[in-house]
Task: structure prediction
Amino acid sequence: MKLKSYFQKLKNKPALIPIFAIFLNKYVLIVLLFVIWMLFLDTNSWLIHKELDQEIKELEDNKEYYIKEIIKDQKDIKVLKDSSELEKFAREEYFMKRDDEEIYIIEYEDSVPKTKKND
Result:
């Protein structure tokens, strides 16, 4: 009851603030409350939609990455079906050798990480 009388007093004052007078209209108040509710407070609010759109974009980026990786792996599998390529891969990646062979790993100066000496 007090609130209604307060708004009535504000409404009766002529040209208090012209913009403020517009917001005292009950239809404008209802629409304003509805817009605020829908943008920020509802379960399907604009903020939630924004977060979900960002998550969808991340998932689509992940999908593209994994599709490229699958294509690359399929090419590698196709190449490794050849026994000579499989042997080459095993020697280069896992340092495998035949029984009668010796393997020496040569590291160049520019490939070895430099360590700091504490004086």
Q: What stands out?
A: The chain has five helices and no strands. The mean pLDDT is 83. The radius of gyration is 36 Å.
